[in-house]
Specification:
By secondary structure, this protein is mainly α. It contains four helices and no strands. The longest helix is centred in the middle third of the chain and has 17 residues. The protein is globular and about 35 Å long.
Length: 77
């Protein structure tokens, strides 16, 4: 298991405790994104997309995945 996946597992457990009503899919995706941010230590979405452990054919698909997650209205505070 990669470092980002390990971080995401711990982050997801924390999110589950802090926000029990948050959707499971949003919680898992957010945990992956936060794990990538912690690993990369940069807010640059292109660099973050490179680190995401997603099974996609192309880099631009990972960038699109991240952009869609960040635009999700369920994440607004």
């Amino acid at each position: 298991m990669g470092t980002i996946r390990q971080l995401a597992t711990e982050i997801e457990a924390g999110l589950r405790a802090a926000h029990p009503t948050l959707r499971k899919t949003v919680r898992a995706k957010l945990a992956l994104a936060v794990g990538a941010i912690l690993e990369a230590q940069t807010p640059n979405t292109v660099e973050l997309a490179n680190l995401l452990p997603l099974e996609t054919e192309r880099q631009d698909m990972r960038e699109q995945w991240l952009r869609r997650l960040l635009k999700n209205p369920l994440l607004s505070s």
